[in-house]
Amino acid sequence: MSHVATERHGKHERHAQEPLHAYPRRWFALVIIAVAQLMVVLDATVVNVALPHAKADLGISDANQQWVVTAYTLTFGGLLLLGGRVADYWGRKRTFVVGILGFAVASGLGGGAWDETSLFLARALQGVFGALLAPASLALLSVLFVDAKERAKAFGVYGAIAGGGAALGLVLGGVLTDYAHWRWCLLVNIPVALVAVALAVRVVPESRAQGNTKYDIPGAVLATLGLSLLVYGFTKAGETDAQQQLKYGWTSPVTLGFIGVALLLLALFVIVETRIRNPLLPMRIVLQRTRGGAYLASTLIGAGFIGAVFFVSLYFQIVLHYTPLQSGLRTLPISAGVLMAAGLSSALLPKIGPKPVMATGAAVAAAGMILLTRIGVDTSYATHVLPAMLILGFGLGCTFVPLGNIALVGVDEHDAGAASAVVNASQQVGGSLGTALLNTVAITAATSYFTDHQARAADPRLRLESMVDGYVTAFWWGSVLLAVAAVVVILLVRAGKDDVPAEGAVHLG
Question: Transmembrane segments in this chain: where (predicted)?
Answer without folding.
Answer: 27-47, 67-84, 96-114, 120-146, 155-175, 181-203, 215-234, 254-272, 293-320, 332-350, 357-377, 389-411, 432-451, 471-493
